Amino acid sequence: MAQRTDVTRALAEWIVDCDIAKIPEAVQQEGVRTFVNWLGCAVGGARHETVDRALDALTQFSGAPTSTVIGRGERLDALHTALINGISSHVLDYDDTHLKTIIHPAGPVASAALAVAERHGISGRELLNAMIVGVEVECRIGNSVYPDHYDRGWHITGTAGVFGAAAAVGRLLKLDVQKMVWALGLAATQSSNLREMFGTMTKSFHPGRAAQNGAASAYLAAAGYDSSNQGIEAPRGFANVLSTKQDYNEILGGLGETWEAALNSYKPFACGIVIHPTIDGCIQLRNETGVGANEVEAIELRAHPLVLELTGKREPKTGLESKFSVFHSAACALVRGDGSPTAFTDEAVNDPTLIALRRKVHVTTDPNVHEASVDIVLKLKDGRTIEKKIERAIGSHEKPLSNAQIEAKFRGQAAPVIGAELCDKLLATAWKLPSLGKASEVTAASVPTPVQLATA
Amino acid sequence: MAQRTDVTRALAEWIVDCDIAKIPEAVQQEGVRTFVNWLGCAVGGARHETVDRALDALTQFSGAPTSTVIGRGERLDALHTALINGISSHVLDYDDTHLKTIIHPAGPVASAALAVAERHGISGRELLNAMIVGVEVECRIGNSVYPDHYDRGWHITGTAGVFGAAAAVGRLLKLDVQKMVWALGLAATQSSNLREMFGTMTKSFHPGRAAQNGAASAYLAAAGYDSSNQGIEAPRGFANVLSTKQDYNEILGGLGETWEAALNSYKPFACGIVIHPTIDGCIQLRNETGVGANEVEAIELRAHPLVLELTGKREPKTGLESKFSVFHSAACALVRGDGSPTAFTDEAVNDPTLIALRRKVHVTTDPNVHEASVDIVLKLKDGRTIEKKIERAIGSHEKPLSNAQIEAKFRGQAAPVIGAELCDKLLATAWKLPSLGKASEVTAASVPTPVQLATA
Prior knowledge:
Protein name (chains A, B): MmgE/PrpD family protein
Number of helices of chain A: 22
CATH class of the largest domain in chain A: Mainly Alpha
Order of helices and strands of chain A: HHHEEHEHHHHHHHHEHEHHHHHEEEHHHH
InterPro entries (chains A, B): MmgE/PrpD_sf (IPR036148), MmgE/PrpD_sf_1 (IPR042183), MmgE/PrpD_sf_2 (IPR042188), MmgE_PrpD (IPR005656), MmgE_PrpD_C (IPR045337), MmgE_PrpD_N (IPR045336)
Pfam families (chains A, B): MmgE_PrpD_C, MmgE_PrpD_N
Oligomer: homodimer
Number of domains of chain A: 2
Family (chains A, B): Belongs to the PrpD family.
Strand content of chain A: 5-15%
Distance between the termini of chain A: 58 Å
Largest interface: A-B, 57 and 57 residues
């Protein structure tokens, strides 16, 4: 594509112009599903040690409390709330995925938008509008540089997410086009986050910081703090500096007509998306054969090289590390039928049965196998061999979770944290997002009282 | 160099170990000069519109006030104070320069360290120690990736500065080695900032945000928020993702023996460093010839291509833009003998005499001319031709500013903002940094009372 000089401005014009009436009903519905899934993840992760430590470090720096930490109830300023909710929504690696780019869209965008909406008393409908626009911006910018940008080592959820958060919050603050351009420029210059951080607490920091920095970009622009007019496309702007691929048609082509936000998917399993076909297949094999761990001779997987690259930890030591181990995941799925957060705990990773079985998992990589597929051969000690071919896993765009499955996932995460009763109330409130007078009804409904916790 | 896996840890060990007794006296003295120069710049920029707008946007998000905005007196939390002082110290493009990398070292490091020192009641000596270590870390990391990293479009003051701020604040918080490693990892994943932002308010945001994010990295690590152990050197860490050059010997070689912090230089002119030889030469020509603007036929410059690349604005419209115009700078130096902040105002850039003269400035680029040199040919209407060859400009490492010149620069910036009397008091306090019981004596001395302002 020839050099363009109007990408940032054209995108800003669309962001400012895209009222909810211009968003198709089906995209709005997917937006609500995105919101509900994100909220369940944020509640599910709310009591994680990672969140505790971030609060320990940063609460002292919060401004006047205007917004609520989901599932906990601490009140912080909107920017710190965006950070903390972004961390908690990602810490279980259970959030949503834009499969074309492996962006987890809601973490940066919904975390920023809800915290800001609560601060300013904004309606659920406006929040939904802003969130969908933010997710669209984030995924399109991701598409424009993927895969080179990701292959280089950028954690695209953070690098693209900061634009999505800026766009969403920019809408909530009703920025004009020039200020929206500046907000995108401020986002561009804060686009960062390295894949090296995977397997540490800092991975979850990425969507949180992208939410916080994107929101700050919008507030700065609102105050007239100016920036480049070509933050995305300039020779020393985001796309050229952070990628060798720059396809601006991915950003501007069909804008408002085709929707990346409608392609969002929701993980049924609490780990890296590339292991999902393996877990899906191993759970199916468990259900179909009922084999015990001591009957297994070997579990042979044929998978895309990315599977080992991203999740090749053979001997994970902690629950967190086990999310990056296809070996542990396969063993746990076959023995326990579990791919939920309870499959990735310190208990599970140190279970002698699972340790023994994961050492019987062998992975052959083959670039001809699709990233979203796997071929599994289960060899038993009695000589039987059972094959299972997973073309696409549950939760993929081809086999999306139903609303009922999203609800079940929500309850599985949220009920242990805030109690079953509050969990149901929160879920009901979340589905009603488009009609809520204030988006903050959701955050209020996420916070347990001492009585509710005692009866949980 | 072969792949190394201990760069971040070895650096962290040195940071933790490097008490003031291990810093040579001459390096300490340069550290004080760095501090004084930075402080003058921060006071000089304190009332700039860029600072006003940042405060307008972000004061609402500040936590409990523990630290002081230099030269103004607003009190904010330490992280926001670091941001604002980082912005004000850079906004006049008058701050210090590590000439090997064009890093402006003090902005990220001193802004973070002083705000945190004030919050915790830390002594001037400890602040000086932390600042020198932080500058050393920042410049060495810069050296390891320069020039490729900068050429690619990264604003190295921000990308390297965040490490320096993390190191300095990590020392003030007395992090152990493991936590210092995490702080550097958190800094690595926040390393960003694009050169595209030059000429906008967002350029000054870079050292400020690097200060704020580096300090936050140290606070997070102190609370046990973990990160990569190889944030700098991992295949998907800072150096590999943000550069094609990775020379880790620049980071670890001679650590504690040779000092990049001793190579800091201080700008005599309030603009991009590559124009300094031109301004120096034109001021000399003015003093030697006494020519008036209407006697000039042409000013011909032969300079390194970087000069036009960085400062090639032919028709700057604002004071800010004029800092990136070698044409305006040459004209203003020849007519007014001025390279101080008053040379780069909206008034100066719109002066008809200077507009006419800058159009007579012609630049020939030649890669064989050193970046720090220039050949000037002044052609007069009466047929005379006067040549001036500037090998190195005043303020360069070869021709450093004396303490008296640093003081004159300080007064030229600070007195108009806080009054001459307070300016003298502040300067005296700043030079005494190593013996101050509390570093915050400096910030207190920088704030004018209404009475002082009225008599200024």
